[in-house]
Fold:
Amino acid sequence: MDINAVIAKELGVENWRVDAAVQLLDEGNTVPFIARYRKEKTGTLTDEQLRDLDERLKYLRNLEERKASVIASIEEQGKLTEDLKKRIEAAETLVAVEDLYAPYKQKKRTRAMIAKEKGLLPFAQEIMIAGNSFNLSKEAEKYISEEKEVLTAEDALQGASDIIAEDISDTAEYRAHIRKLTFEKGSLTAAAKDKDAESVYENYYEYSEPIAKVAGYKTLALNRGEKEKFLTVKVEAPADEIRSYLEKNLILSGNTEVNEFLKAAIKDSYDRLLAPAIERDIRNELSENAEDSAITVFGKNLEQLLMQPPVAGRNVLGWDPAFRTGCKLAVVDATGKV
Structure:
């Protein structure tokens, strides 16, 4: 990825201006210094453009570093394919990279890992491609083994379900679609831990609002209320629609017994693995956007405060002495207009 070219396109400026600004930032110059004293090098990029450039530069460089780290990790495991490598390299966000890395990430010992250690992976794979004549109960009996601690057919079925549930959770396409669906149709809710407790968060004691419409200041207030243990905040997702989407993609045969088993595995995958992960992602995204918005609002308010007339009812002349670039003069009238 040509990071400078990407940033230039996003900002709508020429590449050479971004190249110059990046070089100055890499040399240790600050945004205010570049905006004030290096205008001629950057083609007069404003301080706002430079801040956006700096933030985006850091994000994209972090993204490229993470891509390289993920590719190296998967390659070390001997599981990197050319297609997977291209998909990782084409990812445009850290969330997309993490979704692709999920199946290969080193995890704590999960229920699916334990089931695979017991030799139940082939059984799970058979279930996923089972035809109409597949007898689930009888096939499960074949995997009973005291040595592997699979003592009953129910143990074998549970282990296969755990493997299928984790595979569903680790599929990047499912995660991306469910995250999008939850953001578009889900709600952010809050409830009081103690309804009788007095606090500044009483407006949120019975709160629910579509995620897509939650204002930044509300997100920050909910976060504070949760941190101070006045509120319980949750993401309410369209669970039925999500499970229906997964069933449509995963249940392909007319075998009733297998289909009911897969529906249970899908429900477990969503309730136990996907829903908590998606909720964390969405809460993090809402918080980051809210913080950025708060900084923007603060900047506008501060600008208005600074631009107030310093002496009421009088015109004021400001003088910025300089030898190399010449003196600058500015006049603020009685209304604060420059």
Summary: Residues 187-236 form one domain.
